[in-house]
Amino acid sequence: MYDLYDDASSNSANIESFAGRGKRREGVSGTRIEEGSGHLRLNTDKMQAVPPKVQIEKPTEQETFENKERRFEFCGHRLQITQHLKTLGIPAVIWPSGVALCRYFDKVQMDFSGKKIIELGSGTGLVGILATLLGGEVTLTDLPQVLHQVEDNVLKNIPSALGQRAQVCALEWGRDEGKFPSDYDVVLGSDLIYYPRHFQSLIDTLLHVSSPHTIIYLSSNVSGNLGGLGFHQEIVPKYFNSEILDEITTKGIRIFKLTKKYDAS
Fold first, then answer.
1. Distance CA 140, CA 122 (A)
2. What is the pLDDT of residues 204-261, one digit of tens each?
3. Counting C-beta atoms within 10 Å of the first and last residue's C-beta, which end of the chain has fewer, N or C?
4. Contact at 8 Å (CB) between 244 and 222?
5. How many Å apart are CA 5 and CA 49, to the nearest integer?
6. CA gyration radius for the chain?
7. Rounded CA separation 26/33 (Å)
8. Sheet of 166-170: strands edge to edge?
9. Which one, of 50, 46, 83, lies nearest residue 67 by Cα?
């Protein structure tokens, strides 16, 4: 994934802001971001000077093995996410599908106020943290060995006054879902579809934590040979109604909205 750095000031350095292709929106430090052109444009109402340059940088493979801190801005919230790559490896990667789901929430101006939410496979906690800041009461879940990373990022990004709205819990699909309620308003998941042997366990977990009134947002990579396309085309329709909300064709990412069928079990 490419990082967009605005090095005009120390306040906006290394903040990743995302905008829809060809669309304008307000960015960091009062700039306007035009992704299609690759330039930051002046908003004279908010700033006095144009940033000198935009640098597009792609992380090297070596960075994958080092702890890394990344900064994002979605829905007016600035997030500082630490990846515990040295100790966790893959679970510490911020995958493009997670970023895409945050971008979607930004685009539609999502409001989760009063919603009871569970996130599956939280990883770094990026999506669940944003959902909390957007008003949700969120349970962020992952395997036990990943929880310290999630907790670290929750503490860094969620003000103490809102701390009671975010819980971090262990959940192994197909084993632990019975410990959780079945009445969540929203279920979140990004980049969950990569091991076919886990597909049925994921379905079992989704079925348990949802009712026909639950909205499930899944952001998945459907390109390549990881089984994402087959999962959504062949397995999901047996249990859920499904529609595509958004798509990033250049990255093979689709954002799905699922609702449980009344006769699903």
1. 6
2. 999 999 999 999 999 999 987 778 899 999 999 999 999 999 999 999 999 999 999 9
3. C
4. no
5. 17
6. 19
7. 7
8. 166-170, 137-142, 116-120, 186-190, 215-221, 253-260, 240-248
9. 83
